[in-house]
Amino acid sequence: STQLNFRDFETKLSLLSNQFTIVNTEDCKIIVSTVLNLIYNNDVTKINGNLQVIHANIAPIDFSNTVTLTNDIVYVNNQNQPLYQKTVPLKLFIDVLVKIKQLAINYKGLQAEIVGETKLTQTPATELNAYGQLQLLKGSYKAYGQELAIQKGSTVTFNREIENPQLNVTA
């Protein structure tokens, strides 16, 4: 549903779904249920609510030989003018609880089944942060000719920086 208020230019968007397939490719299938709200008003965007991962199976193709460009690349036209203008940073507030009911990962020797929940937060002054814990129900890791069984109860804990979780894995 969408609600527009032209006086304040406020926009409210609610995303409600029940077992909706958001990705269905050869290497990734994700089914979610959502209760998410997006509010935009005076250059401020707020996203809040719940995202429940009902089922996810992720087995990505190996991207180890992929080359990526740095952020300082500028594309220009024939007159040597930039094709894209840098945008003003988005004033973004995020407060979303992500609950994972079933997540299976198969990548670079790691096979794992994961459940748990984490809260995602962000403000204009902070990067995206995560708070919560994921539990490994079962799994294995193959490397250097050995296969290690990951013990049930191993955890991945997020205490702030999403890219720097605390790993407590016993194999």
Provide keyphrases for this structure.
171 residues, ten-stranded mixed sheet, 0% helix, globular, mainly beta
3D structure, described in words:
This protein has no helices and 10 strands. It is mostly beta strands and 171 residues long. Strands 1, 2, 3, 4, 5, 6, 7, 8, 9 and 10 form a 10-stranded mixed beta sheet that branches. Strand 6 and strand 7 form a beta hairpin.
N-to-C series of helices and strands? EEEEEEEEEE
- The share of residues in helices is under 10%
Number of strands: 10
Gyration radius (Cα, Å) is: 20 Å
| Global outline | globular
Number of helical runs? 0
Low-confidence stretches: none
State mean pLDDT (0 to 100 scale).
88
Class of secondary structure makeup = mainly beta
| SS strand fraction | over 45%
Termini separation? 47 Å
Largest sheet: 10 strands, mixed
Give the structure's gist in a few sentences.
0% of the residues lie in helices and 64% in strands. The protein has no helices and ten strands.
Provide the fold topology.
Elements (H helix, E strand, L loop, with lengths): L1 E4 L4 E15 L3 E14 L2 E15 L32 E17 L2 E13 L6 E15 L2 E5 L3 E8 L4 E3 L3
Parallel strand pairs: 4-5
Antiparallel strand pairs: 1-2, 2-3, 3-4, 5-6, 6-7, 7-8, 7-9, 9-10
